[in-house]
């Protein structure tokens, strides 16, 4: 019998992208709720409890309510794409490449918290250096990033694409999260193995999908002997043997004049770069991904496939 998959919130941006990725899948049965019934709590509860895997594409409070609707039904496995459970010890963090053991944790888990798009890039750069002993726990990490506007959901998409929208956004690029209290900071801190919260400066560009995440570092403040080459080698070693995350060779990075935030739009991959001058004092770590690919919907489907492989 094919596993039953219910996307709770399938009519939102992330949910729609998941449906696109699964449109031609013959190995699963998709349970669906008509858009007109998306607020029908009884129908949602029935579908949630009928699923083998429920993928929650909901705001935080609604995601918590969906989990409560299972009411002790421990046969349903959950992937939550909201922020609600990303630092909970009871939920596996759904970044399969984060550690050598993370794929197995996701495969065997009943509860999986899908990572945020920005944290996927930031943790993907930071955690390998923490585990290699190159980045001190209390290093004052800064994370600077730009995302495609689809990361803001249907409301921001309308604001960016509809000039007649009452709250239309006309800027080609804008900063937000100016209070430094962005909801992604806790998961960056915890899963980045950091002893102090990073300063996170997110922004949005006038392009639908794509993302660049940057983590600049002063080599003098890292572990003794840290260089451009040892940092790159730590990333290469960390991601050896898997195909989703690509660490770009130093000689190729050195020839680049620019990076296009939309290069990986429409894919579920991530590229990592190490920039700097050999023998210099600074490096800039860069992650390139699709905010709706490896940063959201693509990661959810990847996690679902791992869970179904158990």
Short description:
The protein has 310 residues and is of the alpha/beta class.
Relevant terms:
310 residues, alpha/beta, 7-stranded mixed sheet, 6-stranded parallel sheet, 10 helices, 13 strands, 21% strand, globular
Architecture overview:
The chain is an alpha/beta fold. Helix content is 32%, strand content 21%. The chain has helices at residues 13-22, 41-50, 60-69, 102-108, 117-131, 153-161, 185-191, 228-238, 250-253, 293-308, and strands at 4-8, 29-31, 53-56, 77-80, 92-93, 111-113, 142-148, 173-175, 199-205, 211-218, 245-247, 270-276, 282-289. Helix 4 (102-108) crosses helix 10 (293-308). The chain is globular and about 60 Å long. The model has no long low-confidence stretch (mean pLDDT 95).
Q: What's the β-strand tally?
A: 13
Residue share in helices? 25-40%
The sequence of SSEs as H and E is EHEHEHEEHEHEHEHEEHEHEEH
Termini gap: 15 Å
- Gross morphology is globular
Q: What percentage of the residues does DSSP assign to strands (E)?
A: 15-25%
Low-confidence segments, ≥5 residues, pLDDT <50? none
Radius of gyration: 20 Å
Total helix count? 10
How can the largest sheet be summarized? 7 strands, mixed
Explain the layout of strands and helices:
Layout (H helix, E strand, L loop, with lengths): L3 E5 L4 H10 L6 E3 L9 H10 L2 E4 L3 H10 L7 E4 L11 E2 L8 H7 L2 E3 L3 H15 L10 E7 L4 H9 L11 E3 L9 H7 L7 E7 L5 E8 L9 H11 L6 E3 L2 H4 L16 E7 L5 E8 L3 H16 L2
Parallel strand pairs: 1-2, 1-3, 3-4, 4-6, 5-6, 7-9, 11-12
Antiparallel strand pairs: 7-10, 8-9, 10-13, 12-13
Helix pairs in contact: 1-10, 4-10, 5-7
């Amino acid at each position: 019998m094919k596993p039953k998959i219910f996307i709770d919130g399938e009519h939102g941006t992330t949910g729609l992208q998941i449906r696109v990725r699964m449109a031609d899948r013959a190995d699963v049965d998709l349970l669906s709720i008509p858009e007109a019934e998306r607020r029908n709590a009884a129908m949602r509860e029935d579908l949630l409890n009928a699923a083998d895997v429920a993928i929650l594409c909901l705001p935080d409070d609604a995601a918590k309510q969906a989990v409560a609707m299972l009411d002790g039904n421990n046969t349903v496995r959950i992937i939550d794409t909201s922020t609600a459970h990303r630092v909970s010890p009871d939920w596996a963090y759904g970044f399969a490449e984060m550690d050598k053991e993370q794929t197995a944790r996701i495969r065997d888990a009943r509860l999986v918290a899908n990572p945020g798009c920005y944290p996927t890039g930031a943790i993907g750069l930071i955690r390998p250096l923490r585990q290699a002993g190159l980045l001190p726990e209390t290093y004052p990490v800064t994370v600077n990033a730009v995302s495609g506007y689809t990361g803001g959901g249907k409301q921001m998409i309308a604001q960016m694409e509809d000039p007649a929208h009452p709250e239309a956004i006309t800027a080609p690029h804008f900063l937000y999260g100016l209070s430094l209290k962005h909801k992604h900071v806790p998961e960056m801190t915890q899963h980045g193995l950091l002893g102090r919260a990073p300063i996170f400066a997110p922004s949005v560009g006038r392009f639908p999908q794509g993302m660049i995440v940057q983590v600049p570092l002063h080599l003098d403040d890292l572990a003794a002997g840290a260089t451009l080459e040892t940092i790159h080698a730590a990333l290469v070693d960390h991601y050896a043997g898997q195909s989703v995350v690509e660490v770009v060779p130093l000689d190729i990075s050195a020839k680049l004049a620019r990076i296009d935030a939309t290069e990986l739009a429409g894919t579920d991959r991530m590229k990592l770069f190490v920039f700097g001058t050999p023998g210099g004092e600074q490096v800039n770590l860069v992650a390139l991904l699709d905010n709706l690919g490896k940063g959201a919907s693509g990661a959810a489907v990847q996690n679902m496939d791992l869970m179904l492989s158990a």
